[in-house]
Amino acid sequence: MNGEVGFACRLTAAARLALKTGEFDFHKAPYEGTLSFVMCARDKAGVTVQSPALWFKKLREYGLTDIFMIMPCTIKNRKMLGFVNTSGCTIFARFSDGRTTRFSSMWTMDNSKRGWNVTVTEEIVNNAPADIPVFADNTEELKKVLSDIGDLSEKLGFAPFTECFRKGYEVLNGGELPEIPLKELVPALPEKQLRLYLAADISDVFGAMGSWSDSPAAVAAEKGLSSDYDHLSDLLLAQNRYALLHAVNYV
Q1: What is the pLDDT of residue 93?
Q2: In whole angstroms, what is the distance from residue 251 CA to residue 245 CA?
């Protein structure tokens, strides 16, 4: 999965679950280095904390009542998507005093450690909508696009991508869940939402060189299938992102 998206998903799900259970459980990915959370000023000067656990503790001290993640489900140029700093992920927090803030992240490569340092910055949101967004279960819609884009990938001759799409479909269709090497990085979700999360993870094929946005686009053009390629690619990206938003915000 896109690093920035995965981080926001894990952070949001951990915080939402902790609001119910009181226990905040978050694990860093191997490629994540220092995690800094810059909190905006309230009664006194703003503070910066250096761990997700301390971040959540501060949120509770400030009167956190709800937290959720949003991100755009349509992207004008899929080729601009990278591992970090391109997703538009935002985490919104609501507090008992009526205040709403949002958190956005900036990722910086630390070459000495071959990883990414992440700075998450909070800012106040003025005139925030009163209603919290609701993301419906889109299992059937995602299954349909995975089936269709799998057929297209097969026509184009890209077996590895076809396998990704087929695996994602099977997960949604009640098939055996895939082996997960780093299980601690998967949010604690109910099974239906977990299947959506994993299907979106498996079929996250967008990026730059070597991705679904690279050679498949050229082959589709050669075979006169650019229209199908663009339509299904846009649809898959939108349905994958919507699936993540439903799964993570459902907790």
Answers
A1: 97
A2: 11
